[in-house]
Write a structure and sequence with these properties.
This protein is of the alpha/beta class. The protein is 32% helix and 25% strand.
């Protein structure tokens, strides 16, 4: 191993999937011991790049060196032997196994008899998690953990194997607030100890905070590798999408008179494990933001409004009338017309093996049937119209949803509620794991939706989205509304102070 050799040298790598070229003659150098960001739109080739380094794919042509030596990463185990570990965005944890069992897969320590030394392994795992500041009970099933906890366990497992090169694939897409800070501290410690880190993200503040250098891919091609300090955010965006975005967020209405009557309301609502007596109204034509750190009751709120969580107390109102949703089916009825974009699109929002077209029509497929048979022409017309609204390629009509990038999967998940003619959208962190270009398209889609008379309840882990996209923002703390902000009073500081518990009384700030 050459002392000054890069951690990763990729030369003229090509990888295609049929007619789709994922990586087109890509050459990249990643220095040893640093933190290197890998940026690009969904579908730019980032995931393929990571899978090649992880041993999940093999290149069609080109060469790869790890610390100056030729590497044939024919399998994940081969990658592990070279010191490469990966924490994936689409997590590889087995939900029916405990945290301990997942941490040990597939390298549980065994004695001379071949039996797993479970007591020793348990102590080792607990010690490792404690050193990372993770207090999760190792005997809990992964299925019992929330999304952020599962992501932290995914990262912890990769670190547990003492990698020389750590690939972090969208690690903060499910993290917010203190968990992002936790990751930053973890990355700093690993880097200081000599671990080389490749950090895939769509969030520029994290690139600035965590990374020394960055590489941008676009349409499978290498665009630039440079020091993070030598490029501005605007330059990064232009290189990622190949054009400038003059205005990231569309303009808001200038006054509250632009909104109609309340269409969705809750009164003293208690639901789930956290939500504890919340009241508000969502008006026609309004984007109402729900802010809060992880686990403050926002997920319980969205599930309760969509009939997914049992309501312990309080009322739900639609058009001023009290309603009770025993299931999502009732929330989707034409006279209610609610649609939910869930936290995890892959497990809750889509059937990945079905086509995009089938996913889009599924909630209301009965509208396209006659005598028990689906009318393809009628169904296809509705789906194509919805796909055009979200700027989704028409090949999604027949291609499996799982074959698309995260951004296009999110578009399919939104399109199905346009097919269903929903008038109230519950959007839970809709830009999670989405590139800057697709984010802009979703912002415009949201504003167009409410301008046409729809209404949106919107939660985001990215505070700037709430500031620039929402007409009002409610801040949750410990399951209750800690502040209501509107108009020009919506700012990052005004949201973060009550979100962190500063001030005990609810505040209301008018425009």
């Amino acid at each position: 191993m050459a002392a000054s050799a890069p951690a990763v040298e990729v030369d003229n790598i090509c990888k295609a999937f049929g007619p789709t070229v994922a990586l087109d003659d890509v050459s990249v150098r990643i220095a040893a011991g640093g933190v290197h960001a890998l940026l690009g739109e969904n579908g730019a080739g980032k995931s393929t790049f990571v899978k090649l380094l992880s041993g999940l794919l093999r290149p069609d042509s080109g060469s790869l060196k790890i610390f100056g030596e030729d590497a044939d990463l024919a399998s994940p185990r081969a990658a592990h032997r070279t010191g490469i570990q990966t924490a994936f965005q689409e997590m590889t944890l087995v939900s029916d196994l405990t945290v301990l069992d997942n941490m040990l897969l597939p390298y549980a320590p065994a004695g001379l008899s071949g039996l797993i030394q479970r007591k020793k392994a348990r102590q080792s795992v607990i010690s490792h998690l404690t050193s990372l500041g993770i207090s999760t009970d190792v005997d809990r099933n992964v299925s019992e953990l929330d999304l952020a906890e599962r992501q932290k366990i995914e990262i912890a497992r990769a670190i547990y194997r003492n990698p020389k090169i750590l690939l972090l694939d969208e690690p903060t897409s499910t993290l917010a607030g203190k968990d992002v800070d936790w990751l930053g501290e973890t990355i700093a410690r690993l880097s200081a100890a000599g671990t080389s880190i490749v950090f895939i993200t769509h969030r520029m503040p994290e690139v600035r905070e965590f990374c020394d250098t960055l590489t941008i891919l676009r349409n499978g091609q290498h665009i630039v590798t440079t020091s993070t300090a030598d490029v501005t955010d605007d330059e990064v965006v232009e290189k990622i999408i190949g054009r400038s975005i003059d205005q990231t967020f569309p303009p808001k209405p200038e006054s509250a008179t632009a909104f109609g009557e309340p269409v969705l309301g809750v009164r003293n609502l208690k639901a789930g494990r956290k939500l504890d007596g919340v009241s508000f109204d969502l008006r026609q034509g309004e984007i109402l933001g729900i802010a809060g750190l992880q686990g403050m009751g926002q997920l319980d709120l969205f599930h309760a409004c969509f009939g997914m969580d049992e309501i312990a107390a309080g009322q739900t109102l639609v058009d001023g009338q009290e309603v009770w949703f025993g299931s999502p089916t009732e929330a989707m009825r034409p006279n209610m017309a609610l649609g939910l974009l869930p936290e995890d699109r892959k497990t809750e929002g889509l059937f990945l093996k079905l086509s995009g077209g089938q996913n889009a029509s599924l909630p209301v497929v009965q509208r396209f049937t006659r005598h028990g048979l689906i009318q393809p022409a009628k169904e296809g017309a509705a789906v194509r119209s919805a796909f055009a609204s979200v700027q989704l390629d028409q090949r999604a009509m027949w291609t499996a949803a799982g074959a698309f990038s995260g951004g296009n999967q999110q578009k399919i998940a939104i399109a199905k509620w346009l097919v269903a003619e929903s008038r109230i959208l519950l959007l839970f962190d809709p830009t999670r794991g989405i590139d800057v270009g697709t984010k802009h398209e979703l912002y415009v889609l949201m504003r167009d939706f409410v301008s046409a008379g729809g209404s949106i309840l919107f939660h985001s882990t990215e505070i700037p989205e709430l500031v620039h996209q929402c007409d009002r923002v409610l801040v949750l703390y410990n399951g209750r509304i800690a502040a209501e902000l509107s108009g020009k009073s919506i700012s990052e500081n005004a949201i973060m102070a009550p979100a962190l518990g500063h001030g005990n009384a609810q505040t209301e700030i008018a425009s």
